[in-house]
Amino acid sequence: MQAKANILGVGISPVNLGQATERVELSIRENRREYVCVAAAHSIMDCRRDPEVRRAFNRAAMVTPDGMSLVWCLRLLGHAQVGRVYGPDLLLALCGRSGGATRRHLFYGGTEALLRDLSDRLRQEFPGVEIVGAIAPPFRQLTPEEDAEVIRTIGQSRADIVWVGIGSPKQERWMAEHVGRIEAPIMIGVGAAFDFVSGHKAQAPRWVRGAGLEWLFRLLQEPGRLWGRYARYPLFMALLAAQMLRILRFEIED
After folding, report:
1. Distance CA 68, CA 170 (A)
2. With 0-12 CB in 10 A as exposed, 13-18 as middle and 19+ as buried, what is 116?
3. Rounded to whole angstroms, how far apart are CA atoms 171 and 165?
4. How much is the pLDDT for 44?
5. Is the pLDDT of residue 50 over 80?
6. Cα Rg of the chain (Å, integer)
7. CA gap 124, 150 in Å, rounded
8. Contacts of 181 (CB under 8 A, 6+ apart)
9. How far is CA 7 from CA 32, 70, 72, in A?
10. Between helices 41-49 and 51-58, what is the axis angle to 10°?
11. pLDDT of 99 higher than 60
12. 121: which strand partners?
């Protein structure tokens, strides 16, 4: 895998979906105990605002380009093979892989009803998928005892992949805090993928996603919740232009 590209001080892995899945498989085979983030423009702006979040992203084994703006930027930087590695697509690709060893999946995040529907959908689409756990944590900070129980439960499940869907940047903080403590080869933070794959939220049509307009589709669905996130996109574009023109420099710090 090529070295990460610097986008406003955040290292983004110049990969496509096939390369990303192969990288996850390598982590499992070598039992590396690491984590993967998926990044869109709002993730980069979260990193600019909060150094702790930036460190969490930059310490990840892989940070995939989840947003089309990052894909286009990486291609401008000379990474012609880059493709969008969208959280739901990564989840489906790894659950549906054929050939080789069957992987054990555990889901962390969402509600019990959502996780039940997610598991049912995946078992229906991929009859051989092995789901070994689903944990719906409370919507608050866990107590030390609760956190220890989560770690113990995941370890007992012998999961190969822990899918973390508690929202960004909370999920990146959680993975950075738990890497090495979780007895699984890899954790992958996938944001709203649980909602989309389970059918609890409508997914933008493929042509909308390919045109880089998924943000508008989601904003129209949830304006109150997402307005603040997408209001930062003009600043992201301005900072990105300044970096590309070498007016501003951003260092990758971990």
Report:
1. 22
2. middle
3. 7
4. 96
5. yes
6. 18
7. 27
8. 151
9. 26, 8, 12
10. 130
11. no
12. none
CA dihedral 119, 120, 126, 127 (to 10 degrees): 110
Q: What is the mean pLDDT of residues 168-173?
A: 96
Q: Omega of the bond prior to 169 within 30 degrees of 0, cis?
A: yes
DSSP symbols for 226-253? HHHHHTTHHHHHHHHHHHHTTSS-----
For strand 104-108 and strand 161-164, is the pairing parallel, antiparallel, or unpaired? Answer: parallel
Tokens of 3: 């070295």
Contacts of 126 (CB under 8 A, 6+ apart): 95, 96
- Do 212 and 65 touch, CB atoms closer than 8 A? no
Digit-coded pLDDT (tens) for 194-236: 999 999 988 888 888 888 888 888 888 888 888 888 889 999 9
Q: If pLDDT is split at 50, 70 and 90, which confidence band does 101 have?
A: low
For tokens 């460190």, the residue is 55
Which element (helix H / strand E) includes 45? helix 41-49
Helix (H) or strand (E) run with residue 64 in it: strand 62-65
What does the alpha-carbon distance between residue 196 and residue 87 come to, in Å, rounded to a whole number?
10
The pair of structure tokens assigned to 167 is 């929202």
- pLDDT (tens digit per residue) in 24-42: 999 999 999 999 999 999 9
**Token pair for residue 206?**
């493929």
Cα dihedral 55, 59, 60, 65 in deg (nearest 10): 60
In Å, what is the CA distance from 146 to each residue of 142, 166, 188, 252? 6, 16, 21, 34
For residues 159-185, give the mean pLDDT. Answer: 96
Instruction: Please state, in angstroms and as integers, the Cα–Cα distance from residue 173 to each residue in 9, 52, 166, following that order.
Output: 17, 8, 10
